[in-house]
Amino acid sequence: MISPKNDEITIDYKKMERFNMEKKEKIILINKKPVTGSLLYKQACELTDLSQEVRVITDYLDHINYSAKQGDKFALNNFVESSSLGNIVDVLQNIQDELDKVSNSICPDEI
After folding, report:
1. Fewer CB within 10 Å of terminal CB in the chain, N or C?
2. Of 84, 20, 107, 91, which is closest to residue 56 (Cα–Cα)?
3. CA distance to 47, 48, 69, 95, 109, per residue, from 44 (Å)
4. In Å, how far are 16, 29, 67, 80, 83 from 73, measured between CA atoms?
5. What's the whole-model pTM score?
């Protein structure tokens, strides 16, 4: 299907179409819509955003852990007294909810 020609790649779409028809590939549907590259890209972007949120929380907790190991009671007390622990729990809950949404949105209608 792909053949080199003068250091270029050309695609024979007719052969690809015949190949797909011969294989009789099943079209995957999500919410009664075919899976497209744009749908997958959108979901990948959402997962990347969530990954970055987890990374920020992890870095913050690493910093607090380091402060605790160094005996920095001021940093630890400030962390607890400023309700930062509750904020972290809220952010982690939000991440869990968003991961559930992405997981549900990429589940095919039939397997």
Report:
1. C
2. 91
3. 5, 6, 37, 15, 19
4. 66, 55, 8, 11, 16
5. 0.63
